[in-house]
Amino acid sequence: MKADGTLIHTLWGEMAWQLGGKAAYERIRKDDERAASPGDALRVLFNDYGFCLILIDEWVAYARQLHDQGDLPGGSFETHFTFAQALTESAKLAKQCLLVISLCG
Question: Rounded to the nearest 10 degrees, how much is the dihedral formed by the CA atoms of 19, 56, 91, 40?
Answer without folding.
Answer: -70
